[in-house]
Design goal:
This protein has 4 helices and no strands. The protein has helices at residues 14-46, 57-87, 93-127, 132-158. Helix 1 packs parallel to helix 3, helix 2 (57-87) runs antiparallel to helix 3 (93-127) and helix 3 (93-127) runs antiparallel to helix 4 (132-158).
Length: 163
Amino acid sequence: MTQEGRRKGRDETEEERADRMWGELIQEVRVAQTGVQILFGFLLTVVFQPKYATLTPTDQIIYIVTVVLGACATGALIGPVSLHRLVSGRRVKPQAVRIASRLTFVGLVLLLATMTSSLLLILRVATHDGYVPYLVAAVVAWYLVCWYGLPLWARRRHTGRGD
């Protein structure tokens, strides 16, 4: 088939596109929700452990920041479910998909921050070594490559100018 005869996009209405995109978004959110909920649940138990009382004030602040970030990430990643439930049947699915997509992106950024601060706290408590910030920075760089760098590269590389 020639370049001219090749179809671009899908032959779907705005509502059909919104339905498809909603289904894809919910599948993506399910993966992120599970991870953030397990991490957040774990974080909530830390304060009740005897070792918590021996943390330095800096580590306690890191813990508090981590819990707040985890709570915010959980809220953002569960938000699309609530949004869908509250607007269902109101004929606003295309708008709801856009809002839910933005909420999900914010949730992923907050999840990145939660995982970063969790890793920082755990490694500080486990090792008390000066290399911890470098190790955390390397892991964050890896997350950034996997979560944002590669997807943005693929989008740029494989999306034509007219798309």
